[in-house]
Amino acid sequence: MRRAPLPLLLLGSSLVTACGPGGGRPERPPSTTAIDAAAFDAREEEILRDLGAVDRRIAQRTRVAPSEDDLRRVTMAAVLREDPTVAVVDGAIDPFSFDARARGLAIAKQKIASLPATAPPERASERDLLARLVDEEAARLEEERALPRSASSLVRAIVATWQAPRSVAEAADADRWLARRLADLRETMTEPAPASALDVVRARELDDALDALERIAPAPVFMRATQELVRVREALESAASKPAAKAQSEWSMIAPRARAHLGTAQSPDDLARELTAAAADLRALAEEAVAAAGLRPESLEATLEKQVFVSGPCLDAVPGSRVRSMAAPQEREPACHLRHLVSRADDDAARAIAFAAMHDHVAVASWALEVARGAATIAEAEGRHRLFVPVSPDTRSRYERIALARPVAALGAGEAVRVLVAGDPRTRARAWSSLGDVPLDVARRELGVTAPKR
Question: What's the Cα-to-Cα distance from 148 to each of 42, 89, 144, rounded to whole Å?
Fold first, then answer.
């Protein structure tokens, strides 16, 4: 918008004052609280734009698009540091630019610390959630650094933030960039016995992610990338042919991520006992609800397959809070979809499906926990924690991949169930929607749920 010349602005101001109420008396200046709130909101938007420039997945979740200046500032900082690992695509750094992402998160953390301390009380909660958001992204960054183990997450990040080339030149640039990143990935897979080597399940996860990448980057246009993708698949064959791993604890790696994304601080033994007890209670409730609705348990299979571990954007619009109105991160996404399902359970059949779905989320959470703490293999865990009804082999395979390759998301859904069943599930799910997307310890506190034993 073109700015008016200064004299005209002054004249307009005078006219408004003269014609305003009170015979020309000046309007009351805004309160200090209102000024602080406005300053906070402006600073918060700046921080969210910064985070979106660091990782386009965050921009998608916040629906706050970074400006060209924001993107230029982040990319130029990486270029000036002569960072050899950085890659710029469509003006933004890509998910593989780990050091640049780390610097961006550190700057965002500094800006959060400088937010106005005198802002209204509700902004204090917003400031805390902003800080938690940065901590979550720092945990994600460290997880994604561990290639090739994290490869499927990074490939899915490319797919999720993909922008189709608008010209032949852009397509050629994208082809070179994508080929480079796939080559980087392949090199980590062929290193001698890397500590983060792919196991069978993560190899399958990566294979699925590569399928999605192939669909958006077809061979006729992306020749170099296609050639590298074929080489990655060849390297995958050796990982996929390995026998299933024996039980071994990975809790030391998973526990920090569960604390960051879920607020979970319980010992794995306590968590295992509480999940087992919740599953038993839910099985009884689901059986009763199925009988009351006149449903045959076997008829639930097709419905449950669509309601357990749903993927895709999930959010609640919370007035006055940008952070609570964000789409859930992948670690809390299944939990978000589940509570929406429970909030809609307003008849006997819907309640039966909701109880059965909650039971199966807890069962898969138990699989994830048993494997993560080294107490069982996935096959042993499935035998100990049965699903409510048998499912197809493809669905069981999907649940296994979630439990093994995305254990924090599996645990998050199980923990969300425990919050919901602390009262009437439907009432609690609706109350949770008014809180928006928050870590589970925050949901417990604000819903008045007694914290679990530690």
Answer: 39, 22, 9
Report how far residue 178's alpha carbon sits from residue 163's, in angstroms, rounded to the nearest whole number.
13
Answer whether 321's CB lies under 8 Å from 255's CB. Answer: no
Asked if 95 and 111 count as a contact pair (C-beta separation under 8 A), the reply is no
DSSP letters for 425-449:
HHHHHHHHHHH-S--HHHHHHHHTP
Cα gap 86→101, rounded to integer Å: 9
Neighbour-count burial for 415-448, b at 16+ CB within 10 Å, e otherwise? bbbbbbbeeebbebbebbbebbbbbbbbbbeebe
**Packing angle, helices 407-420 and 393-405, rounded to 10:** 100
361-390 pLDDT, tens per residue?
999 999 999 999 999 999 999 999 999 999
The candidate with the shortest Cα–Cα distance to 343, out of 363, 361, 358, is 358
Residue 93: strand, helix, or coil: strand
User: Do residues 356 and 290 touch, judged by C-beta distance below 8 A?
Assistant: yes
Q: Hey, how many other C-beta atoms are within 10 angstroms of the C-beta on 240?
A: 16
Contact call for residues 408 and 258 (beta carbons, < 8 A): yes
Q: At what angle do helices 251-262 and 407-420 cross, to 10 degrees?
A: 50
Chain segment 121-152, per-residue pLDDT in tens: 778 899 999 999 999 999 999 999 999 999 99
Contact of 268 with 369, CB cutoff 8 Å: yes
Neighbours of 210 (CB within 10 A): 22
Contact 333, 326 (CB under 8 A): no
Is the overall model pTM greater than 0.85, yes or no? yes
Bridge partners for 360 per DSSP: none
Distance CA(255)–CA(352), nearest Å, equals: 33
> CB under 8 Å to 276, separation ≥6 — which residues?
366, 385
Q: Measure the CA–CA gap between 261 and 259, rounded to whole angstroms.
A: 6
SS (H, E, C) 69-86: HHHHHHHHHHHHCCCCCC
With a CB cutoff of 8 Å and minimum separation 6, the contacts of 129 are 321, 323, 324, 438, 442
CA distance 282 to 323: 32
Say whether pLDDT at 26 is over 80: no
CB atoms within 10 A of CB 91: 14
